[in-house]
Amino acid sequence: MKRISSGGAYEEKIGYSRAVVAGGMVYVSGCVGEGVEVTAQCAAALVTIERALAEAGSDFAHVVRVTYMLPDAAEFEGCWPLLRAAFGTHPPAATMIECGLIDPKCRIEIEVTAMLREDAGG
Fold first, then answer.
1. In angstroms, rounded to a whole number, what is the distance separating the alpha carbons of residues 121 and 119?
2. Of 33, 39, 74, 118, which alpha carbon lies 20 to 30 A from 82's?
3. What confidence tens digit (pLDDT) does each residue in 16-67 have?
4. What residue ranges do the domains of the chain occupy?
5. C-alpha–C-alpha distance, residues 75 and 73, integer Å
6. What backbone phi and psi angles, to 5 degrees, belong to 31?
């Protein structure tokens, strides 16, 4: 098992890893991003996820499941172009949940589960 940290403030405060690699899979914790607009936060969260996946030996093409959490479901549609661009021709199974997030400034949180790339030992 491999644990990956991004150095985010909440990782230390709460005690969790950004991602964990186990059994040929990569489990990326929920990621939020900086910015005022939901689209800026979505883009920043995707960058954090991309980095964690790369360090683990995976990428967006190997994501099998994604969960989107937003305090206001009406804001989700604005993120769709960013999500289509990230996942391209490899769309994962997905769920969107309307819920409260850890900080009222957060407009979206994204978590993914991915397979390791073949060349990464998965």
1. 6
2. 118
3. 999 999 999 999 999 999 999 999 999 999 999 999 999 999 999 999 999 9
4. 2-120
5. 5
6. -120, 135
The DSSP call for residue 105 is T
Report if pTM > 0.90: yes
Query: pLDDT tens digit string along 86-120?
Result: 999 999 999 999 999 999 999 999 999 999 998 87
88 dihedral zone (left: phi>0; alpha: psi -120 to 50; beta):
left
Q: Six-digit token pair at 65?
A: 């499941």
Token pair, residue 18, equals 């950004």
Residue 65's CB is within 10 A of a number of other CB atoms, namely: 14
Q: pLDDT for 29-39, tens place per residue?
A: 999 999 999 99
Look at residues 71, 76, 67 and name the one whose alpha carbon lies nearest to residue 103: 71
Q: Which two tokens stand for residue 71?
A: 């305090």
